[in-house]
Amino acid sequence: MQGRVQLYQRSHINTDEIIPARYLNVHDKAALARHAMEDIDPGFVDRVQAGDFIVAEEDFGCGSSREHAVWALQGAGVQAVLADSFARIFYRNAINNGFYPIEIAGISTRVGQGDELNIDLAKGRVINMTKDEVYDFPPFTSFIQAVIDAGGLLSYLGKQKSGAGISDGT
Amino acid sequence: MGMTLTEKILADHYAGGSIQPGDLIQVGIDLIMCHEVTTPPAIQMLLEHGLSGVFDPDRVVVTPDHFVPNKDIKSAELVRELREWVTANGIKNYYELGRHGICHALLPEQGHILPGQTVVGGDSHTCTYGAFGTFATGIGSTDLAAALYSGELWFKVPESIKVNLTGKLPPGVYSKDIVLELIRRIGVDGARYQALEYHGETLEELSMEARMTITNMAIEAGAKCAIMEADDLTSAYLDGRAKGGDWTVHRADQDARYAQELTIKVDDLEPLVAFPSLPANGREIASLTSEEKESVDQVYIGSCTNGRIEDLRIAASIMKGHQVAAGVRAIIVPSTSTTWKQAHDEGLLAIFHEAGCAISTPTCGACLGGHMGVLGEGEVCVSTTNRNFTGRMGHPSSRVYLASPATAAATALRGCITDPREYLQEER
Lengths: 170, 428
Ligand code: SF4
Prior knowledge:
Chain A is 30% helix and 18% strand.
């Protein structure tokens, strides 16, 4: 995966900020994408390009369980979010949609707005092409990787047929 | 090794038997809560993946609550999708408008939540049900779809934080102040990926309603769930109400391992307000300067945190015989249809009406900036809800302070942030 950084030097970016509740009467990705980040960054929708990465500080995606937050970002073309840490429901929702939540401590202080990143998921490595730096992260557990590879939890479930359980006991 | 309350319940629902924090396990689900915002996408996903059908229709409880009565055409379509799915799948526990309520108030009130169960819901405040000694957690739409289809979900077993509540609440201080204090201390991600397990003598004095206010806001500290051991009060509450028969009371082992242990001496607490725009921004009202006691445009008493009958009684006791200040809109939203009727029968609605409040049918409404009290540009609101994020209740420049029903009521009367004890003293 390769793309540019949209940087937020902020913690606790919540799902109300990623997609305000007033737009939750639809769940179409393209429709949600028109209002992504609207209340904290009205310029986001015009600035973001397909393939971009969002980079933020701690606790990204806290608050409401609305999966619409993941869909709005996916609809806007965002490939992955890199943050110091994630709130747990957002993290699950991301995985369940085959969308990457990548946890790297201190990432928001190391990259700049617009930096070009190349991410190697198998190796757990981010290469900052602009700054010529490398940041490592622990690869996903095999269960999570299997869910992402399948394209999300339901495709995974469809493949496993119900009740196959989790093979990876990590 | 001893187990925490959360570990006990999860182990009881896991085929593999023994577990420890960090394990990734497949858990059987006893009950699933659905509403009209997050369930229609789940229904659509199931259809798209050819995974139709619900594993057990009797283990699903459904109510439209967020945008009801339907706020616009799109919301009406969401509720229609929900209703058609309910009918097609033979789901009997459907609460239509008029019998409806805010999900996290309705399910306990109707006796669906039992000790020892595992409950998931397509809503982050599903953690509320932990007040019954239940493992309950909020999930997104894909997890919801998977749970509806298979009756199971994967979870990472959380570590637990033990919170001891000691002492007796002083007059004017309520369970909302306890949970605002906790979040102020540990921060909005202080319990991230963890369970908050409550103990201590104070709990014995707290009603089920007051306990639910505390478990409701676990997610505001980032927790996966909050949990309290079921006791005599829990049994008394469930008596004549419980649907589904027997339940299991689990207790945490004496030698259970906790990631952290902390104590809140509630005797020392004072009424708090959480300043915009984080629930962790709690401050004692008594410590505020007169400028900080901002004038308000609106007061909102309702939501799954504080819209229950006890909350309405507290607010009414403060408002009785007084008038809402000029320029303030006070909105009262009983959390369920039954609560509305009870408030009516007890004369509370008349007190609110005479004070100059607007009274709504149950709805999430303005709690999430949906309808029925959305804030305009720069407006200020003191609210009994659980989130004061940027734009949560309306315009991104509006400002929300979180407080107890007593504080909200006192604020409505004075027109600016007010310590409820000023009105309690008046009564004496
Ligand atoms: S009342 Fe507010 S917090 Fe509670 S379920 Fe409704 S929108 Fe969510």
